[in-house]
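TL;DR need C-alpha cells for one chain.
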Amino acid sequence: MTAKMSSRDRIISSFKHERPDRPPIDTWIHHEVESRLRKHFGTDDWWQIREELGIDRWDGLGPAIHDPEFEGRKRKNPNNGRTEAWIDDSTYENVWKVRHKIGDDGRYEQWISGPLEAAENPEDLDKLFRWPDKSMIRDPENYSKRVAQLKSEDKFVTGSIPNPFKAHWEMRGFENGLMDYAGNPELLNASYDKLYEVYGEMVKRMAAADLDMVCIVGDFAMQDRMMIQPDSWIEFDKPRLAKMISDARQIKKDIWFFIHSDGNIMDVMDHIVEIGFDVVNPIQPECMDPSEVKRRWGKRITLHGGISLQKTLPFGNPGDVKKEVEDLINSCGRDGGLVVFPSNVLQPDTSTENILTLFSTAKNFRY
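>> reply
TL;DR here they are.
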C-alpha cells in the first residue's frame, strides 16, 4: 500500500501516471448543493468541508480582462461566484458584451444576446464591437509570489479561459456561430484571430507565473456527436489550440493543459492528445466509455471525470454510487491518470447521501 500523500503530490503523481495512495478527487458544485453541505457539516469553512469530503486542494488564480466601463456595475454572480457587470437584478454581461439572464428560481441561467449577431463580414466585427485587447489584461497582484504561496500551502494551482469556440458562438449567437464554419469562414477566422490574441496572452501569463495547469473550458460536443463536423474542428480550432499550448510551453515546459467539453468528443480525441492536452474532462459515461478512453489514450492523458451525473448520482442509491466509483477507479486509475470527478456540476437533484457516498468511496479507496 502506498504511503499517505499530500494533496498536491497526489495530483501530480496521478498526472505523471504514477500510482498515488488513492485517486485524486475534484468536483464542481451547484450553489444550492454547497449550501446543503455547509448545513450538513455545520460550518461555512469551505476548505474544511472539502477536507472532510476528501476533495483535493485545487485552487485557481488567473489574469482577468479589465473593462473600465464595468466599474459601478460589478458584483458577484450568485450562481458561480464570478464578478459580472449587471444590467438589472437578473441580467448581466461580460467583457465581450455577451448577456445572460438568471432564471426566476435562481438555479440556472441562459444566453440572451451577443454583440456580433448582425455581423455579415469581417469588417463588421470592429463596427459592432470594441474588442478587448492585451492592454486590458490584469494579472493578480504579485502573481508569481501568490502562486508560489499557494503551492507552499499544498495546493495545485490552475487558471482557466473559455474555449474560444464557445466565446465565438456566444458573441455571434449559436446558430450563426456554427454556420460560420461552413458559410462564413472569413468571419470566423477574423473573430478567432482576435479571441486567440487575448486568450493566448492570458495563457502565456499563467505559464510565466508558474501555474501548474491551464484549463480551457467550453462545450463543443453534444450527447452523441460534436456540434460541428470533426473536419471543421481540425481545420479551424486544432491549429490555434496547438499554438496556444506550444507558446505556453516555450515559457514553462512542464505546464499541464486541461480541456473540458460535455458530450462525445471521440472523433477528435486523437487530435486533442496530439496537440498536447494532458487532462480531459468530464468523460460523461453516457457519451464516452471511460474504459475505452483509458485503453486507447490512457498512457498519454489523465481522465478527469467519469461518474454519471445523468443516471447514477441523481437516480441511483448509495450502493449504486459506491459500485460506480469503485469500478471507475479499478478500470481507469490503477496506474494513475485518473481524477474522480462527477461528470459536471453536482446538481440539486442529487441527494446528500449519494454525494457523501461518492466522495467517501474515493477518499477511502486504497490501491
